[in-house]
Amino acid sequence: MKQLSLTLLFLILTVSGCFSESSSDATGEKLWVYVQLNIEEHDGIDSDWLYGKIDRGIYESIQNGNTEGFFVLTDLRFWSTETEKITDYKDHTFGNVATFRREFIASIYELQGDPMKTYPPDEVDFGDTPAE
C-alpha cells in the first residue's frame, strides 16, 4: 500500500512539476542526498524518506533557504517501512526519476555515495521487484 501511494505521489508531483527545477541554480554536477519530504494530505501529513542524486547547485540553493520551485531526484531509492530497508525505486512509466516541490523538504543531507553500495547489506533490499 505504501508503494502504491508513493507511486501515485510521484505521478502527481511529476506532472505538476513538469516545469522542472530552476535552471539558474543548476550546475550539472550531481551528488547523492537523503531527503525527508512532508506532504500535507487531507488526512494528515505523509512523510517519505528518499535517497537520490540531485544537482549540486540546486542542493546548495536549498541549503541556503530557497524553498521556491521544484527539484529533481534521479537514481531514486526509498526507505521501505514494510521491509525496513533501502529499496531501489522502479516505476514502469517514469523509471526512477521524480520531481518534487522544494517546500515539501523537511530535511536534506549530502551522502558519501549510493546508499545501495555504502549502507550495511542488512539495511539494503537487493531484490529485483518493481514498485507497484
The overall pLDDT, averaged over residues, is: 81
Largest sheet: 7 strands, mixed
Given helix and strand content, the structural type is: alpha+beta
Any idea what the radius of gyration is?
A: 14 Å
Shape: globular
Strand tally is 7
Distance between the termini: 8 Å
The helix-strand sequence is HEEHEEEEHE
Helix content: 10-25%
| Percentage of residues in strands | 35-45%
Question: What low-confidence regions span 5 or more consecutive residues with pLDDT below 50?
Answer: 15-21
Helices, by number, come to 3
Could you name the key traits of this structure?
7 strands, 132 residues, globular, 3 helices, alpha+beta
Report on this model:
By secondary structure, this protein is an alpha+beta fold. Helices cover 20% and strands 39% of the residues. It is built from three helices and seven strands, in the order αββαββββαβ. It has helices spanning 2-16, 56-63, 115-118, and strands at 30-41, 44-55, 70-80, 85-88, 98-101, 105-110, 124-125. Strands 1, 2, 3, 4, 5, 6 and 7 form a seven-stranded mixed beta sheet that branches. The longest helix has 15 residues, at 2-16. It is globular, with a radius of gyration of 14 Å. It starts with a helix and ends in a 7-residue tail after the last strand. 23% of the residues are buried. The model is unreliable at 15-21 (pLDDT under 50).
